[in-house]
């Protein structure tokens, strides 16, 4: 399949804020979305309404981020990723108010950042919660509402709280039948 080369300029809705100069061609940023100055967004992406991309977040090409998703510092989103509406990501396992005495000490450097890595082609369902540090493998699928607290292997389908392996998906995201002994798939 031939990939289309984005030639259109970046579209920014009049009520969106895009401070970054590192947004790829063909990307669309919809109303009330905010892309901070030191965020990176690739080509041919779609950032839905009420999305936020924080300084230090990196988004690849052809990524779909549905409404109400926040991408925080330390997130790396590879090419061809889908993030469903209101999916939630965290980058701090032990958050404290940075205005408190303890918080001022904790946040004086970047050691607190718990990276969240979304590898190429993975999908995160609506209202899923992904708690860093974590890596979601190539073409894996996180079911809607799942709570991910540890790495997900490539091609895995995870669901529940906490998220557990419930199956495998193919490159199109379709659930695969379990394998029998000898490697053949069950009907």
Second rung of CATH, namely the architecture? 3 Solenoid
Task: List unreliable stretches of 5+ residues.
Answer: none
CATH superfamily: Hexapeptide repeat proteins
Secondary-structure class: mainly beta
Order of helices and strands: EEEEEEEEEEEEEHEEEEEEEE
> How large is the count of helical segments?
1
Strand content: 25-35%
**Shape from CA axes?**
globular
Q: Could you estimate the helical fraction of the residues in percent?
A: under 10%
Question: Quick one: biggest sheet?
Answer: 9 strands, mixed
Topology, element by element:
Layout: E1 11-12, E2 17-18, E3 28-29, E4 34-35, E5 40-41, E6 46-47, E7 52-53, E8 58-59, E9 64-65, E10 70-71, E11 75-77, E12 82-83, E13 88-90, H1 101-106, E14 116-118, E15 123-124, E16 129-131, E17 134-136, E18 141-142, E19 147-148, E20 156-159, E21 164-168
Parallel strand pairs: 1-3, 2-4, 3-6, 4-7, 5-8, 6-9, 7-10, 8-11, 9-12, 11-14, 12-15, 13-16, 14-17, 15-18, 16-19, 18-20
Antiparallel strand pairs: 20-21
